[in-house]
Amino acid sequence: GAVVSQHPSRVICKSGTSVKIECRSLDFQATTMFWYRQFPKKSLMLMATSNEGSKATYEQGVEKDKFLINHASLTLSTLTVTSAHPEDSSFYICSALSGRAWETQYFGPGTRLLVL
Amino acid sequence: DAKTTQPTSMDCAEGRAANLPCNHSTISGNEYVYWYRQIHSQGPQYIIHGLKNNETNEMASLIITEDRKSSTLILPHATLRDTAVYYCIVRYAGNNRKLIWGLGTSLAVNP
Known about the structure:
Chain A is an all-beta fold and 116 residues long. Chain A has no helices and 11 strands. Helix content of chain B is 0%, strand content 47%.
């Protein structure tokens, strides 16, 4: 299967700072990547859809100015949580859409963010 | 996307087959059934998907009923490492590539 990596795997930051999370497709080119957030014991919530070379499409209720998404290349998308607050603490997961048959989404290992 | 219904939790003995059901009674003809699983504190892992026919790969088998209103994921010989939350998702095979996640089935494989 296709491999997607995320960096960092865990991050702890102070309230008010910004945090950048990288998502890379390692062995395929991904024209579309997705960003999800998951709170404890809850299901995945789609935050935004990121297409290479264009602006991300955000889901209802997700602040685009707070969660900045950049998809500058076919193998890299970044999510920046700006002016993070404790309520932004969560598990952030990216996925990349393989252009192969069936267009299956492959997921990264996730990034655990803790805002103090 | 069609809504899916799964049992909240299931138990299975190690070495036995785990059969995870999913109802998707409102599925339309151009929607696929996808199965993912999520082991604690990890990203979801793709398992298998299908449209009409039964499918099998190295991880599991997918049995879809003839009317496509339900399906069953089969792990033929469950191991402790198969303990995870299993998600059944139906997705339109067109431009809308979103996956809408429910709460899934928490499978516990017991020794």
